[in-house]
Every structure is written in structure tokens, then in C-alpha cells.
Fold:
Amino acid sequence: MTKEEADRLVASVRHWHHTFDIVPGVRTPGSYDPAILWDRIKGVCDWRGARVLDIGPADGAVSMWAAKSGAEVTALDFRPKTATGFAAMEKITGLTFDFHVGNILDPPNLGTFDAVFFLGVLYHLPDPLRGLWACRRYCKTGARLFVESWFSDTTPGDEPLMKYIRHGATADWTNFWAPNRCALLAMMSDVAFDVVRHDAWGSRIFVEAIAVEDAERGRRMSVAYAQNIAGR
Ligand SMILES: C[S@@+](CC[C@H](N)C(=O)[O-])C[C@H]1O[C@@H](n2cnc3c(N)ncnc32)[C@H](O)[C@@H]1O
Structure:
């Protein structure tokens, strides 16, 4: 594809969330540069051949960087790829992604992965714990989960608290919950991840965690979400 064709394809997308170079010289006109996320993820392992699940990829900048690093990327979003820039990114790069339309709160069977990206999605969920538990079930034991979220540290400390965002409280009606740091780390631990790293900037937090086998923690979630009532 020529640069002119690629530019035309970029211009045909109604709304870009991400601003990034799809190929050198072809930049998308979004309002948010997700390089801040990939910079925190890219160096943790050799991505060649890794099975990666990107939940809520939007325009797919992070999916693309992982694929360009050699990962086999599956994407799951409740919006089709033509509703975002994802389909255009796919065409311009020529990369192939296993894209599924689905809701993380009713997770389709996609198998298990070496790494799961859960970036900018948690606070959009009415049930964030359920979303994290779905992430755990997509992870092989020892897999990495990367979470990035809006968070509220107006109550810092060791009390796990979440602020409920009532309808109309922010311009974005898709926001539901802002956990504090302690609550996010506690929820991730309770769905059987060991947190290995976290850092925050402004109202955003980033966490890396490893999926662990823990029958007690797993059973608590299975019972809570009625996947195995008989085992109670
Ligand atoms: C704020 S964007 C984050 C995009 C990208 N991951 C990033 O961090 O830049 C949230 C994305 O999650 C998707 N999403 C929100 N709720 C979802 C759900 N319940 N199941 C699947 N995808 C969801 C949206 O369609 C959107 O693509």
C-alpha cells in the first residue's frame, strides 16, 4: 500500500482514540498516545511466539506493537474492529490478528495466553472484579497480566476503597468505578495474581502481575460467580 492510500484509509476512520505511527510517516490523529503503556510492557520478555490477549484494544496500537515484536495477538472488544481504527491499522500493516467481538463480562472461550493486556478497561466495567477474574481464566499459570486504569487515590493507604461514578458525574458515561491503589492490588491478588510491579502518574495506575495457582483464591471466585456451586 502506498503512503497516499494509507493516509486515505486513516482519514476514512470516523474517530481515532490513539495517536501513533502505523508505519513510518503514517500517523493517526487520536488524542491519546499509548506509547506510555507499551514502554512499560515491551521489555519484560521476548515476545516472539508469545500468545497475547489484548482486551479492549480500541484502535489497536498496543496490539500492533506486540505483533511487530513477534507475538501472536488475539484481540477482544465489544465494539467491532470497523467501529474503531483497528481494521484500518490491520490493513495498513498487513499484520493479522485474531479479533473477537465480545464482552469481557461474558467472556468467550479463547483458550489461554502467555500475557493479557487489560489496559484502560477496568473502570468501564460495572463489575471490575468479574473482569479481573475473566483475565485470570485467560492466563496460563505464570502468565503476565498488565492492567492500566484510572484510579482514585483521594484515600491513599491500606484501606481498599472504590469510588462509584454515578451517571452524569463525568463527561464519559461509560465510567463506573475508580478503585484506590490498595483496592486494585487487593482485587488482583484475590483473583490469583501476584503483583510484581506498579506505578502511578496523575490519575492513572499501571500494574504488572503473574498468574498463580491458588485453589483457595480460585474457589472463592468460582463460587461467587456460580461456576462451581457444588464445590462450595
Ligand atoms: C479507553 S479504551 C482503552 C483502549 C486501549 N486498551 C488503551 O489502553 O489505550 C477502552 C476499550 O475497551 C473496550 N471495552 C469497554 N468495555 C468493554 C467490555 N465490557 N468488554 C470488551 N471490551 C470493552 C472499548 O470498546 C474500548 O475499545
In short: The longest strand covers residues 139-150. The chain has one domain: 33-231. The CA atoms of residues 46 and 205 lie 24 Å apart.
